[in-house]
Known about the structure:
By secondary structure, the chain is mainly beta.
Amino acid sequence: xPAALLSPGMCVRFVPVLAGEALMTDHALAVVRAGALxxxxxxxxxxxxHLGVPRSGALDRPAADLANRLAGNPPExxxxxxxLNGCAVRPRSTVVVAVTGAPCRVTVDGRAVPWGAPLRLPxxxxxxxxxxxxxxxxxxxxxGGIAVEPVLGSRSTDLLSGLGPAxxxxxxxxxxxxxxxxxxxxxxxPQPAPPAELVLRVTLGPRxxxxxxxxxxxxxxxxxxxxxxxxxxxxxxxxxxxxRTRQGELHSEGMVLGAVQVPPxxxxxxxxxxxxxxxxYPVIAVVHAADLPAAAQAVPGTPVRFVAVRRR
Length: 312
């Protein structure tokens, strides 16, 4: 409504809209229930660490890739990543969607529909992605992908640096890209179950010599648990503290995805997608990249074992 037609005292509601394609299009997704933490994620921003920019991107990359394949998207398309209690969205045009990652109840206008399968969602229908039955993060792929404005080549939300779109809120409208026209013929796609025990293969170093031999032995032989304080920046653990041989701290040095940093409390912290690019606490080991998607689905309390497979 033009401002000139507004009457004194009239109630006006402002709805947040994320930039992307033309805002007047009907090809968009309205967020009805944002959930505890729902963000836009894609392949992330690798290659910018020298600028102090984390890589970000989907924590469970295989689950995000599968959501895109089922929705008929290329791997680089942006998806929604939910945390624990899902989200609910309503498209303004008919779209194909798919929900993957943490198993959950999925409904369309209150009617149960398959999880892990492509779904035709009519315009105006309500897709509700329920709480995770197991695991932590579910992924919602939509044909055409979430077309918010890219920052440094990525549409990912980065919780540490603040780059990319803010975490979603109720009422946000997300523009969608143009569908590729690829049709997926599958009933339900198999997916790995969230881990009952998280086994992380590690390469020891580069700062394992900052710890006593007994501490290194404890690290690779004693069980830990996933801490409730974990997030997209890092998976914190609870368990035996690791004793150091050196006091003081390092000068800040580069940090990589999967680095296992040991802060002053002595409990290992595994850096995930939104990790800082530098740090001053010693890194006792680095987790193999292939094991990190499982870390994204490990609920608090999940047992964790670090297994040394080789040294640096």
